[in-house]
Amino acid sequence: MLDTVPNRPDLPAEIARRRTFAIISHPDAGKTTLTEKFLLYGGAIQMAGQVRAKGEARRTRSDFMQMEKDRGISVSASAMSFDYANYRFNLVDTPGHSDFSEDTYRTLTAVDAAVMVIDGAKGVESQTQKLFEVCRLRDLPILTFCNKMDRESRDTFEIIDEIQQNLAIDVTPASWPIGVGRDFIGCYDMLRDRLELMDRADRNKIAESIEINGLDDPQLAEHVPEHLLEKLLEEVEMARELLPTLDPQSVLEGHMTPIWFGSAINSFGVKELMDGISTYGPEPQPQNAQPREIAPDETKVAGFVFKVQANMDPKHRDRVAFVRLASGHFKRGMKLTHVRSKKPMAISNPVLFLASDRELAEEAWAGDIIGIPNHGQLRIGDTLTEGEALRVSGIPSFAPELLQGVRAGDPMKAKHLEKALMQFAEEGAAKVFKPSIGSGFIVGVVGQLQFEVLASRIEMEYGLPVRFEASQFTSARWVNGDKLALDKFINTNKQHIAYDNDGDVVYLTRLQWDIDRVERDYPDLKLTATKEMM
Ligand code: G4P
Protein backbone atom coordinates (compact mmCIF):
# COMPACT_ATOMS: atom_id res chain seq x y z
CA MET A 1 0.00 0.00 0.00
CA LEU A 2 1.27 3.47 -0.78
CA ASP A 3 1.95 5.74 2.13
CA THR A 4 3.56 8.52 0.22
CA VAL A 5 2.32 12.05 0.46
CA PRO A 6 0.37 13.05 -2.64
CA ASN A 7 2.34 14.58 -5.47
CA ARG A 8 1.26 18.22 -5.17
CA PRO A 9 2.61 19.73 -1.96
CA ASP A 10 1.41 23.16 -3.08
CA LEU A 11 -2.25 22.10 -2.87
CA PRO A 12 -4.11 21.75 0.43
CA ALA A 13 -3.49 18.13 1.45
CA GLU A 14 -7.19 17.32 1.43
CA ILE A 15 -7.43 18.34 -2.21
CA ALA A 16 -4.12 16.81 -3.29
CA ARG A 17 -5.20 13.40 -2.01
CA ARG A 18 -8.36 13.26 -4.07
CA ARG A 19 -8.64 11.17 -7.22
CA THR A 20 -11.87 11.59 -9.12
CA PHE A 21 -12.29 9.21 -12.02
CA ALA A 22 -14.66 7.12 -14.09
CA ILE A 23 -14.35 3.65 -15.57
CA ILE A 24 -14.85 3.33 -19.30
CA SER A 25 -15.36 -0.05 -20.89
CA HIS A 26 -17.40 -2.14 -23.27
CA PRO A 27 -20.26 -4.01 -21.56
CA ASP A 28 -19.05 -7.27 -20.01
CA ALA A 29 -15.39 -6.33 -19.80
CA GLY A 30 -15.59 -6.37 -16.01
CA LYS A 31 -16.41 -2.84 -14.87
CA THR A 32 -18.83 -3.97 -12.15
CA THR A 33 -16.44 -6.61 -10.87
CA LEU A 34 -13.57 -4.15 -10.78
CA THR A 35 -15.72 -1.59 -8.95
CA GLU A 36 -16.55 -4.21 -6.34
CA LYS A 37 -12.90 -4.92 -5.77
CA PHE A 38 -12.07 -1.21 -5.53
CA LEU A 39 -14.64 -0.93 -2.80
CA LEU A 40 -13.37 -4.03 -1.12
CA TYR A 41 -9.85 -2.60 -0.92
CA GLY A 42 -11.28 0.78 -0.09
CA GLY A 43 -12.64 -0.86 3.04
CA ALA A 44 -16.12 0.24 2.08
CA ILE A 45 -17.57 -3.24 1.94
CA GLN A 46 -16.64 -6.44 3.66
CA MET A 47 -17.28 -8.84 0.86
CA ALA A 48 -17.14 -8.37 -2.83
CA GLY A 49 -20.52 -9.04 -4.36
CA GLN A 50 -22.27 -6.39 -2.36
CA VAL A 51 -22.14 -3.74 -5.03
CA ARG A 52 -24.52 -5.72 -7.12
CA ALA A 53 -26.76 -6.46 -4.15
CA LYS A 54 -26.60 -2.87 -2.98
CA GLY A 55 -27.12 -1.69 -6.50
CA GLU A 56 -30.29 -3.64 -6.71
CA ALA A 57 -31.58 -2.42 -3.37
CA ARG A 58 -30.95 1.12 -4.50
CA ARG A 59 -32.53 0.46 -7.83
CA THR A 60 -35.78 -0.86 -6.48
CA ARG A 61 -36.22 2.56 -4.90
CA SER A 62 -36.31 4.04 -8.31
CA ASP A 63 -39.23 2.79 -10.31
CA PHE A 64 -37.86 2.78 -13.80
CA MET A 65 -35.13 0.47 -12.71
CA GLN A 66 -37.32 -2.56 -13.09
CA MET A 67 -36.69 -2.18 -16.75
CA GLU A 68 -33.03 -1.83 -16.19
CA LYS A 69 -33.08 -5.02 -14.19
CA ASP A 70 -35.01 -6.88 -16.86
CA ARG A 71 -32.61 -5.81 -19.51
CA GLY A 72 -29.52 -6.09 -17.41
CA ILE A 73 -28.22 -2.67 -18.29
CA SER A 74 -27.36 0.29 -16.20
CA VAL A 75 -29.13 3.47 -17.23
CA SER A 76 -28.23 5.68 -14.32
CA ALA A 77 -24.86 6.97 -13.28
CA SER A 78 -23.96 7.36 -9.67
CA ALA A 79 -20.97 8.32 -7.60
CA MET A 80 -19.07 6.44 -4.93
CA SER A 81 -16.42 7.66 -2.53
CA PHE A 82 -13.97 5.56 -0.58
CA ASP A 83 -10.55 5.83 0.99
CA TYR A 84 -7.52 3.92 -0.14
CA ALA A 85 -4.22 4.37 1.68
CA ASN A 86 -3.85 8.13 2.00
CA TYR A 87 -6.15 8.82 -0.88
CA ARG A 88 -9.80 9.61 -1.29
CA PHE A 89 -11.18 8.02 -4.44
CA ASN A 90 -14.32 9.40 -6.03
CA LEU A 91 -15.55 6.95 -8.63
CA VAL A 92 -18.24 8.24 -10.92
CA ASP A 93 -20.12 5.45 -12.62
CA THR A 94 -20.83 5.80 -16.31
CA PRO A 95 -23.84 4.10 -17.84
CA GLY A 96 -22.56 1.40 -20.14
CA HIS A 97 -25.26 1.25 -22.78
CA SER A 98 -24.55 3.19 -25.93
CA ASP A 99 -28.08 4.65 -25.94
CA PHE A 100 -27.09 6.80 -23.02
CA SER A 101 -23.92 8.27 -24.40
CA GLU A 102 -24.91 11.86 -23.68
CA ASP A 103 -25.25 11.09 -19.99
CA THR A 104 -21.89 9.37 -20.15
CA TYR A 105 -20.33 12.31 -21.88
CA ARG A 106 -21.50 14.67 -19.18
CA THR A 107 -20.30 12.31 -16.49
CA LEU A 108 -16.86 12.50 -18.01
CA THR A 109 -16.88 16.28 -17.57
CA ALA A 110 -16.96 15.67 -13.82
CA VAL A 111 -13.84 13.52 -13.56
CA ASP A 112 -10.11 14.13 -13.82
CA ALA A 113 -9.12 10.74 -15.19
CA ALA A 114 -10.54 7.51 -16.56
CA VAL A 115 -9.72 3.88 -16.04
CA MET A 116 -10.17 1.97 -19.28
CA VAL A 117 -11.05 -1.68 -18.75
CA ILE A 118 -10.56 -4.06 -21.65
CA ASP A 119 -11.13 -7.76 -21.91
CA GLY A 120 -7.83 -9.51 -22.62
CA ALA A 121 -9.46 -11.78 -25.16
CA LYS A 122 -11.38 -9.08 -26.98
CA GLY A 123 -9.09 -6.07 -26.93
CA VAL A 124 -10.46 -2.63 -27.76
CA GLU A 125 -14.20 -2.98 -28.42
CA SER A 126 -16.56 -0.47 -30.02
CA GLN A 127 -17.96 1.13 -26.88
CA THR A 128 -14.50 1.49 -25.37
CA GLN A 129 -13.32 3.18 -28.50
CA LYS A 130 -16.23 5.65 -28.44
CA LEU A 131 -15.73 6.50 -24.80
CA PHE A 132 -12.02 6.83 -25.31
CA GLU A 133 -12.64 9.41 -28.03
CA VAL A 134 -14.73 11.42 -25.59
CA CYS A 135 -11.92 11.29 -23.03
CA ARG A 136 -9.49 12.38 -25.68
CA LEU A 137 -11.56 15.49 -26.43
CA ARG A 138 -10.76 16.58 -22.90
CA ASP A 139 -7.22 15.13 -22.84
CA LEU A 140 -8.21 13.07 -19.82
CA PRO A 141 -5.43 10.91 -18.42
CA ILE A 142 -6.25 7.23 -18.95
CA LEU A 143 -5.04 4.23 -16.99
CA THR A 144 -5.69 0.87 -18.57
CA PHE A 145 -6.63 -2.41 -16.93
CA CYS A 146 -6.52 -5.49 -19.12
CA ASN A 147 -8.91 -7.88 -17.42
CA LYS A 148 -9.72 -11.59 -17.52
CA MET A 149 -6.13 -12.72 -17.87
CA ASP A 150 -7.18 -15.93 -16.13
CA ARG A 151 -8.94 -16.82 -19.38
CA GLU A 152 -7.43 -17.43 -22.77
CA SER A 153 -6.30 -13.97 -23.84
CA ARG A 154 -4.44 -12.46 -26.69
CA ASP A 155 -0.71 -12.15 -26.83
CA THR A 156 0.48 -9.29 -24.61
CA PHE A 157 2.34 -7.45 -27.36
CA GLU A 158 -0.66 -7.79 -29.61
CA ILE A 159 -2.96 -6.21 -27.00
CA ILE A 160 -0.58 -3.32 -26.45
CA ASP A 161 -0.14 -2.85 -30.17
CA GLU A 162 -3.88 -2.81 -30.75
CA ILE A 163 -4.39 -0.07 -28.16
CA GLN A 164 -1.56 1.96 -29.66
CA GLN A 165 -2.89 1.56 -33.18
CA ASN A 166 -6.61 1.94 -32.56
CA LEU A 167 -6.49 4.67 -30.00
CA ALA A 168 -3.34 6.45 -31.08
CA ILE A 169 -1.89 6.61 -27.59
CA ASP A 170 1.48 5.43 -26.27
CA VAL A 171 1.15 2.36 -24.09
CA THR A 172 3.62 1.48 -21.39
CA PRO A 173 3.37 -1.80 -19.49
CA ALA A 174 3.12 -1.23 -15.74
CA SER A 175 2.96 -4.97 -15.24
CA TRP A 176 3.66 -7.98 -17.43
CA PRO A 177 1.48 -11.11 -17.33
CA ILE A 178 3.10 -14.46 -16.62
CA GLY A 179 1.39 -17.26 -18.48
CA VAL A 180 -2.06 -17.02 -19.93
CA GLY A 181 -5.46 -18.63 -19.33
CA ARG A 182 -5.12 -21.66 -17.11
CA ASP A 183 -1.39 -21.06 -16.95
CA PHE A 184 -1.71 -17.48 -15.74
CA ILE A 185 0.02 -17.25 -12.38
CA GLY A 186 0.43 -13.52 -11.91
CA CYS A 187 2.41 -10.54 -13.11
CA TYR A 188 5.83 -9.07 -13.01
CA ASP A 189 5.53 -5.51 -11.69
CA MET A 190 7.54 -3.52 -14.22
CA LEU A 191 7.54 -0.37 -12.12
CA ARG A 192 8.58 -1.80 -8.80
CA ASP A 193 10.38 -5.02 -9.73
CA ARG A 194 8.10 -7.27 -7.79
CA LEU A 195 6.45 -10.55 -8.48
CA GLU A 196 2.70 -10.57 -7.84
CA LEU A 197 1.25 -14.04 -7.61
CA MET A 198 -2.44 -14.77 -7.97
CA ASP A 199 -4.27 -17.05 -5.59
CA ARG A 200 -6.87 -18.97 -7.55
CA ALA A 201 -8.25 -20.64 -4.47
CA ASP A 202 -9.37 -17.44 -2.75
CA ARG A 203 -10.88 -14.86 -5.06
CA ASN A 204 -10.85 -12.09 -2.49
CA LYS A 205 -7.32 -12.59 -1.34
CA ILE A 206 -4.72 -9.94 -1.99
CA ALA A 207 -1.97 -11.30 -4.22
CA GLU A 208 1.28 -12.44 -2.72
CA SER A 209 3.90 -9.84 -3.49
CA ILE A 210 7.57 -10.76 -3.60
CA GLU A 211 10.35 -8.26 -3.97
CA ILE A 212 12.67 -9.22 -6.79
CA ASN A 213 16.11 -7.90 -7.37
CA GLY A 214 16.01 -7.54 -11.14
CA LEU A 215 15.36 -10.21 -13.72
CA ASP A 216 18.48 -12.18 -12.75
CA ASP A 217 17.20 -12.77 -9.24
CA PRO A 218 17.21 -16.55 -8.59
CA GLN A 219 14.03 -16.06 -6.56
CA LEU A 220 12.15 -15.79 -9.84
CA ALA A 221 12.84 -19.43 -10.62
CA GLU A 222 11.55 -20.41 -7.20
CA HIS A 223 8.14 -18.99 -7.95
CA VAL A 224 7.78 -19.16 -11.71
CA PRO A 225 7.72 -22.56 -13.45
CA GLU A 226 10.49 -23.01 -15.96
CA HIS A 227 8.38 -22.97 -19.11
CA LEU A 228 6.84 -19.65 -18.10
CA LEU A 229 10.03 -18.09 -16.82
CA GLU A 230 11.87 -18.30 -20.10
CA LYS A 231 9.03 -16.59 -21.93
CA LEU A 232 8.70 -13.95 -19.21
CA LEU A 233 12.36 -13.01 -19.32
CA GLU A 234 12.35 -12.83 -23.09
CA GLU A 235 9.18 -10.75 -23.22
CA VAL A 236 10.14 -8.32 -20.49
CA GLU A 237 13.46 -7.74 -22.14
CA MET A 238 11.75 -7.11 -25.46
CA ALA A 239 9.14 -4.88 -23.86
CA ARG A 240 11.83 -2.79 -22.21
CA GLU A 241 13.55 -2.43 -25.52
CA LEU A 242 10.56 -1.77 -27.75
CA LEU A 243 7.96 -0.04 -25.62
CA PRO A 244 8.18 3.42 -24.08
CA THR A 245 8.97 3.70 -20.38
CA LEU A 246 6.50 5.36 -18.11
CA ASP A 247 6.53 9.13 -18.37
CA PRO A 248 4.23 10.53 -15.66
CA GLN A 249 3.87 13.88 -17.40
CA SER A 250 2.83 12.23 -20.64
CA VAL A 251 0.24 10.21 -18.70
CA LEU A 252 -1.17 13.38 -17.15
CA GLU A 253 -1.40 14.98 -20.57
CA GLY A 254 -3.32 12.01 -21.93
CA HIS A 255 -0.65 10.98 -24.44
CA MET A 256 0.42 7.80 -22.67
CA THR A 257 -1.48 5.11 -20.83
CA PRO A 258 0.10 2.67 -18.40
CA ILE A 259 -1.44 -0.79 -18.65
CA TRP A 260 -1.89 -3.27 -15.81
CA PHE A 261 -2.83 -6.87 -16.46
CA GLY A 262 -5.04 -8.74 -14.05
CA SER A 263 -8.17 -10.59 -13.23
CA ALA A 264 -10.75 -8.55 -11.41
CA ILE A 265 -12.78 -11.55 -10.38
CA ASN A 266 -9.70 -13.00 -8.68
CA SER A 267 -8.90 -9.62 -7.14
CA PHE A 268 -5.68 -9.77 -9.05
CA GLY A 269 -3.90 -6.65 -10.26
CA VAL A 270 -6.51 -4.41 -8.70
CA LYS A 271 -4.34 -3.09 -5.88
CA GLU A 272 -1.54 -2.33 -8.29
CA LEU A 273 -4.02 -0.42 -10.42
CA MET A 274 -5.24 1.51 -7.37
CA ASP A 275 -1.66 2.34 -6.43
CA GLY A 276 -1.24 3.49 -10.03
CA ILE A 277 -4.30 5.75 -9.84
CA SER A 278 -2.92 7.22 -6.63
CA THR A 279 0.56 7.81 -7.98
CA TYR A 280 0.00 8.66 -11.62
CA GLY A 281 -3.61 9.84 -11.61
CA PRO A 282 -4.15 13.57 -11.39
CA GLU A 283 -5.34 15.50 -8.37
CA PRO A 284 -8.42 17.71 -8.94
CA GLN A 285 -7.83 19.80 -12.03
CA PRO A 286 -8.77 23.39 -12.89
CA GLN A 287 -12.23 23.75 -14.37
CA ASN A 288 -13.04 25.68 -17.53
CA ALA A 289 -15.53 28.41 -16.79
CA GLN A 290 -16.63 31.84 -17.97
CA PRO A 291 -15.31 34.45 -17.55
CA ARG A 292 -12.33 32.70 -15.93
CA GLU A 293 -10.99 29.27 -15.06
CA ILE A 294 -11.62 27.91 -11.53
CA ALA A 295 -8.58 26.55 -9.68
CA PRO A 296 -9.17 23.75 -7.17
CA ASP A 297 -7.24 25.46 -4.40
CA GLU A 298 -9.25 28.68 -4.43
CA THR A 299 -10.57 29.19 -0.93
CA LYS A 300 -14.09 29.92 -2.15
CA VAL A 301 -16.36 27.07 -3.04
CA ALA A 302 -17.56 26.57 -6.62
CA GLY A 303 -19.20 23.54 -8.18
CA PHE A 304 -21.33 22.50 -11.11
CA VAL A 305 -24.20 20.14 -11.77
CA PHE A 306 -23.33 17.37 -14.22
CA LYS A 307 -26.25 15.09 -13.56
CA VAL A 308 -29.75 15.28 -12.17
CA GLN A 309 -31.58 12.22 -11.04
CA ALA A 310 -35.22 12.34 -10.14
CA ASN A 311 -37.15 10.11 -7.82
CA MET A 312 -34.23 8.29 -6.27
CA ASP A 313 -36.59 7.93 -3.39
CA PRO A 314 -40.25 7.60 -4.39
CA LYS A 315 -41.39 8.81 -0.96
CA HIS A 316 -40.13 12.24 -1.88
CA ARG A 317 -40.66 13.94 -5.19
CA ASP A 318 -37.18 15.26 -4.89
CA ARG A 319 -34.44 15.29 -7.36
CA VAL A 320 -30.82 14.95 -6.56
CA ALA A 321 -28.37 17.14 -8.42
CA PHE A 322 -24.90 15.61 -8.62
CA VAL A 323 -22.43 18.42 -8.10
CA ARG A 324 -18.75 18.22 -8.77
CA LEU A 325 -16.91 20.62 -6.51
CA ALA A 326 -14.43 22.58 -8.58
CA SER A 327 -12.84 24.52 -5.73
CA GLY A 328 -12.71 25.19 -2.04
CA HIS A 329 -13.76 23.52 1.16
CA PHE A 330 -17.49 22.99 1.38
CA LYS A 331 -19.28 22.71 4.72
CA ARG A 332 -22.82 21.62 5.33
CA GLY A 333 -25.27 24.49 5.71
CA MET A 334 -23.27 26.80 3.46
CA LYS A 335 -25.18 29.35 1.45
CA LEU A 336 -24.18 29.23 -2.17
CA THR A 337 -25.32 31.35 -5.06
CA HIS A 338 -27.18 29.61 -7.84
CA VAL A 339 -25.57 31.59 -10.62
CA ARG A 340 -28.24 31.10 -13.31
CA SER A 341 -31.05 32.52 -11.15
CA LYS A 342 -28.71 34.67 -9.00
CA LYS A 343 -30.56 33.31 -5.97
CA PRO A 344 -28.95 32.10 -2.74
CA MET A 345 -29.40 28.46 -1.84
CA ALA A 346 -28.72 27.04 1.60
CA ILE A 347 -27.20 23.62 1.12
CA SER A 348 -28.45 22.05 4.31
CA ASN A 349 -28.70 18.37 3.46
CA PRO A 350 -26.03 17.52 0.93
CA VAL A 351 -25.32 13.85 0.40
CA LEU A 352 -21.95 12.18 0.06
CA PHE A 353 -22.03 8.93 -1.83
CA LEU A 354 -19.93 6.87 0.50
CA ALA A 355 -19.83 3.41 -0.93
CA SER A 356 -21.56 1.88 2.05
CA ASP A 357 -24.59 4.13 1.68
CA ARG A 358 -25.66 7.67 1.05
CA GLU A 359 -24.58 9.84 3.95
CA LEU A 360 -25.07 13.42 4.95
CA ALA A 361 -21.98 15.31 3.92
CA GLU A 362 -20.61 17.47 6.71
CA GLU A 363 -17.81 18.68 4.49
CA ALA A 364 -16.37 18.13 1.06
CA TRP A 365 -13.42 19.38 -0.95
CA ALA A 366 -12.61 20.27 -4.52
CA GLY A 367 -12.77 17.03 -6.49
CA ASP A 368 -15.62 15.53 -4.47
CA ILE A 369 -19.08 14.78 -5.78
CA ILE A 370 -21.98 15.76 -3.56
CA GLY A 371 -25.66 15.19 -4.09
CA ILE A 372 -27.96 18.13 -3.48
CA PRO A 373 -31.64 17.26 -3.04
CA ASN A 374 -33.81 19.96 -4.57
CA HIS A 375 -37.22 20.56 -6.09
CA GLY A 376 -36.10 21.25 -9.61
CA GLN A 377 -34.11 24.47 -9.22
CA LEU A 378 -30.87 22.75 -10.11
CA ARG A 379 -30.31 21.81 -13.73
CA ILE A 380 -27.48 20.20 -15.61
CA GLY A 381 -24.81 22.77 -16.35
CA ASP A 382 -25.73 25.03 -13.41
CA THR A 383 -22.92 26.54 -11.40
CA LEU A 384 -22.94 27.21 -7.65
CA THR A 385 -20.48 29.69 -6.15
CA GLU A 386 -19.99 31.82 -3.07
CA GLY A 387 -21.27 34.82 -5.03
CA GLU A 388 -19.07 35.26 -8.08
CA ALA A 389 -20.89 35.02 -11.41
CA LEU A 390 -18.90 32.08 -12.79
CA ARG A 391 -20.34 29.63 -15.25
CA VAL A 392 -18.71 26.32 -15.82
CA SER A 393 -18.44 25.64 -19.53
CA GLY A 394 -18.03 22.56 -21.68
CA ILE A 395 -21.09 20.59 -20.66
CA PRO A 396 -22.75 19.79 -23.94
CA SER A 397 -26.20 18.83 -25.04
CA PHE A 398 -26.32 16.85 -28.27
CA ALA A 399 -28.95 17.00 -30.97
CA PRO A 400 -31.08 13.88 -30.66
CA GLU A 401 -30.80 11.20 -33.31
CA LEU A 402 -34.39 9.93 -32.98
CA LEU A 403 -37.52 12.02 -32.79
CA GLN A 404 -41.03 10.96 -31.87
CA GLY A 405 -44.30 12.65 -31.06
CA VAL A 406 -45.83 11.92 -27.67
CA ARG A 407 -49.44 11.88 -26.56
CA ALA A 408 -51.05 11.33 -23.20
CA GLY A 409 -53.38 8.30 -23.12
CA ASP A 410 -55.92 10.60 -21.46
CA PRO A 411 -56.19 13.85 -23.46
CA MET A 412 -57.38 15.69 -20.31
CA LYS A 413 -53.94 15.15 -18.83
CA ALA A 414 -51.96 17.17 -21.36
CA LYS A 415 -50.74 19.56 -18.63
CA HIS A 416 -49.39 16.67 -16.59
CA LEU A 417 -47.61 15.38 -19.62
CA GLU A 418 -45.99 18.74 -20.17
CA LYS A 419 -44.79 18.79 -16.58
CA ALA A 420 -43.34 15.31 -16.84
CA LEU A 421 -41.60 16.10 -20.12
CA MET A 422 -40.09 19.27 -18.73
CA GLN A 423 -38.73 17.33 -15.81
CA PHE A 424 -37.04 14.82 -18.08
CA ALA A 425 -35.69 17.58 -20.30
CA GLU A 426 -34.13 19.26 -17.27
CA GLU A 427 -32.74 15.98 -16.05
CA GLY A 428 -31.11 15.59 -19.44
CA ALA A 429 -32.98 12.33 -20.06
CA ALA A 430 -34.50 13.58 -23.32
CA LYS A 431 -34.85 16.62 -25.53
CA VAL A 432 -38.33 18.07 -25.55
CA PHE A 433 -39.38 20.37 -28.37
CA LYS A 434 -42.59 22.35 -28.64
CA PRO A 435 -43.42 22.91 -32.31
CA SER A 436 -44.41 26.49 -33.13
CA ILE A 437 -47.48 25.24 -34.97
CA GLY A 438 -50.02 22.88 -33.48
CA SER A 439 -50.16 21.25 -30.10
CA GLY A 440 -48.21 18.46 -28.53
CA PHE A 441 -44.52 17.82 -28.10
CA ILE A 442 -41.74 16.15 -29.98
CA VAL A 443 -39.31 14.16 -27.91
CA GLY A 444 -35.78 13.49 -29.04
CA VAL A 445 -33.36 10.87 -27.78
CA VAL A 446 -30.14 9.22 -28.83
CA GLY A 447 -31.29 5.58 -28.68
CA GLN A 448 -34.63 3.84 -29.11
CA LEU A 449 -34.47 2.35 -25.64
CA GLN A 450 -34.78 5.79 -24.10
CA PHE A 451 -38.35 6.12 -25.41
CA GLU A 452 -39.26 2.98 -23.52
CA VAL A 453 -37.56 4.18 -20.36
CA LEU A 454 -39.38 7.51 -20.65
CA ALA A 455 -42.78 5.93 -21.25
CA SER A 456 -42.35 3.68 -18.25
CA ARG A 457 -41.12 6.50 -16.02
CA ILE A 458 -43.97 8.83 -17.02
CA GLU A 459 -46.45 6.10 -16.23
CA MET A 460 -44.86 5.21 -12.90
CA GLU A 461 -43.86 8.62 -11.65
CA TYR A 462 -46.86 10.59 -12.94
CA GLY A 463 -49.47 7.85 -13.24
CA LEU A 464 -49.86 8.81 -16.86
CA PRO A 465 -49.88 6.25 -19.67
CA VAL A 466 -48.39 7.77 -22.83
CA ARG A 467 -47.93 6.80 -26.44
CA PHE A 468 -44.90 7.62 -28.53
CA GLU A 469 -45.63 7.82 -32.23
CA ALA A 470 -43.74 8.40 -35.45
CA SER A 471 -42.84 11.99 -36.13
CA GLN A 472 -42.51 13.60 -39.55
CA PHE A 473 -39.06 14.83 -38.47
CA THR A 474 -35.81 12.96 -38.03
CA SER A 475 -33.25 15.67 -37.29
CA ALA A 476 -33.01 18.68 -35.01
CA ARG A 477 -30.57 21.58 -35.06
CA TRP A 478 -30.30 24.55 -32.76
CA VAL A 479 -30.40 27.83 -34.64
CA ASN A 480 -28.37 30.82 -33.50
CA GLY A 481 -27.63 34.15 -34.96
CA ASP A 482 -28.54 37.72 -35.38
CA LYS A 483 -32.09 38.49 -34.18
CA LEU A 484 -33.28 39.98 -37.44
CA ALA A 485 -32.06 37.06 -39.52
CA LEU A 486 -33.46 34.64 -36.97
CA ASP A 487 -36.92 36.26 -37.01
CA LYS A 488 -37.01 36.17 -40.78
CA PHE A 489 -35.96 32.55 -40.75
CA ILE A 490 -38.64 31.65 -38.18
CA ASN A 491 -41.37 33.40 -40.18
CA THR A 492 -40.56 31.67 -43.41
CA ASN A 493 -40.00 28.20 -41.92
CA LYS A 494 -42.80 28.04 -39.34
CA GLN A 495 -43.67 24.42 -39.98
CA HIS A 496 -40.10 23.41 -39.15
CA ILE A 497 -39.62 25.55 -36.04
CA ALA A 498 -39.84 24.38 -32.46
CA TYR A 499 -38.55 25.57 -29.10
CA ASP A 500 -36.62 23.53 -26.57
CA ASN A 501 -37.28 23.64 -22.82
CA ASP A 502 -35.00 26.67 -22.46
CA GLY A 503 -36.95 28.49 -25.18
CA ASP A 504 -34.10 28.20 -27.69
CA VAL A 505 -34.99 27.93 -31.38
CA VAL A 506 -34.73 24.52 -33.00
CA TYR A 507 -35.05 23.62 -36.67
CA LEU A 508 -36.70 20.25 -37.31
CA THR A 509 -36.49 18.42 -40.59
CA ARG A 510 -36.22 15.00 -42.15
CA LEU A 511 -33.64 15.83 -44.77
CA GLN A 512 -29.98 16.67 -44.53
CA TRP A 513 -30.63 18.48 -47.79
CA ASP A 514 -32.85 20.96 -45.89
CA ILE A 515 -30.10 21.64 -43.39
CA ASP A 516 -27.61 22.28 -46.19
CA ARG A 517 -30.10 24.58 -47.89
CA VAL A 518 -30.70 26.64 -44.74
CA GLU A 519 -26.97 26.97 -44.23
CA ARG A 520 -26.62 28.21 -47.80
CA ASP A 521 -29.61 30.55 -47.77
CA TYR A 522 -29.00 32.01 -44.32
CA PRO A 523 -25.29 32.68 -44.02
CA ASP A 524 -25.91 34.81 -40.88
CA LEU A 525 -27.38 31.87 -39.00
CA LYS A 526 -25.61 28.96 -37.43
CA LEU A 527 -27.15 25.51 -37.23
CA THR A 528 -25.57 23.36 -34.55
CA ALA A 529 -25.93 19.78 -33.40
CA THR A 530 -24.69 20.59 -29.89
CA LYS A 531 -25.62 23.21 -27.40
CA GLU A 532 -23.79 24.12 -24.25
CA MET A 533 -25.85 23.69 -21.12
CA MET A 534 -25.48 26.87 -19.14
P1 G4P B 1 -19.44 -5.12 -16.87
O1 G4P B 1 -19.84 -4.42 -15.61
O2 G4P B 1 -18.27 -4.48 -17.55
O3 G4P B 1 -20.54 -5.38 -17.82
O4 G4P B 1 -18.86 -6.57 -16.49
P2 G4P B 1 -19.04 -7.45 -15.18
O5 G4P B 1 -18.17 -6.97 -14.09
O6 G4P B 1 -20.47 -7.64 -14.89
O7 G4P B 1 -18.40 -8.78 -15.73
C1 G4P B 1 -18.91 -9.46 -16.85
C2 G4P B 1 -18.67 -10.95 -16.70
O8 G4P B 1 -17.26 -11.20 -16.68
C3 G4P B 1 -19.20 -11.50 -15.40
O9 G4P B 1 -19.59 -12.83 -15.65
C4 G4P B 1 -17.98 -11.51 -14.50
O10 G4P B 1 -18.06 -12.46 -13.48
C5 G4P B 1 -16.91 -11.88 -15.50
N1 G4P B 1 -15.57 -11.43 -15.07
C6 G4P B 1 -15.21 -10.24 -14.56
N2 G4P B 1 -13.89 -10.22 -14.30
C7 G4P B 1 -13.41 -11.41 -14.66
C8 G4P B 1 -12.11 -11.99 -14.63
O11 G4P B 1 -11.13 -11.42 -14.22
N3 G4P B 1 -12.00 -13.27 -15.12
C9 G4P B 1 -13.07 -13.97 -15.59
N4 G4P B 1 -12.85 -15.19 -16.02
N5 G4P B 1 -14.31 -13.45 -15.62
C10 G4P B 1 -14.48 -12.19 -15.17
P3 G4P B 1 -21.09 -13.24 -15.84
O12 G4P B 1 -21.10 -14.71 -15.98
O13 G4P B 1 -21.70 -12.43 -16.93
O14 G4P B 1 -21.77 -12.75 -14.53
P4 G4P B 1 -21.70 -13.38 -13.08
O15 G4P B 1 -22.77 -14.41 -13.11
O16 G4P B 1 -20.33 -13.95 -12.89
O17 G4P B 1 -21.99 -12.23 -12.20
Topology:
Layout: H1 13-16, E1 18-25, H2 31-41, H3 50-61, H4 65-71, E2 79-84, E3 87-92, H5 101-108, E4 113-119, H6 126-137, E5 142-147, H7 156-167, E6 170-173, E7 175-178, E8 186-189, E9 194-197, E10 208-211, H8 219-223, H9 226-242, H10 248-252, E11 256-261, H11 270-280, E12 289-290, E13 302-310, E14 319-327, E15 329-331, E16 335-338, E17 343-346, E18 351-354, E19 357-360, E20 363-365, E21 369-374, E22 383-385, E23 391-392, E24 396-398, E25 402-408, H12 414-427, E26 431-435, E27 441-445, H13 448-462, E28 466-470, E29 475-481, H14 483-492, E30 497-499, E31 505-509, H15 512-521, E32 525-528, E33 530-532
Parallel strand pairs: 1-3, 1-4, 4-5, 5-11, 6-11
Antiparallel strand pairs: 2-3, 7-8, 8-9, 9-10, 12-23, 13-14, 13-22, 14-21, 15-20, 16-17, 16-22, 18-19, 18-21, 24-33, 25-27, 25-28, 26-27, 26-30, 29-31, 29-32, 30-31
Bound molecules: guanosine-5',3'-tetraphosphate.
The site of guanosine-5',3'-tetraphosphate has 17 residues, from helix 2.
Would you give an account of this structure?
- It is a single chain.
- Strands 17-16-22-13-14-21-18-19 form an 8-stranded antiparallel β-sheet. An 8-stranded antiparallel β-sheet has the order 28-25-27-26-30-31-29-32.
- Mean pLDDT is 86; it is low at 1-5 and 46-77.
- The chain is globular.
- The chain has 15 helices and 33 strands.
- Helix 12 (414-427) packs across helix 13 (448-462).
- It is an alpha+beta fold and 534 residues long.
- It binds guanosine-5',3'-tetraphosphate.
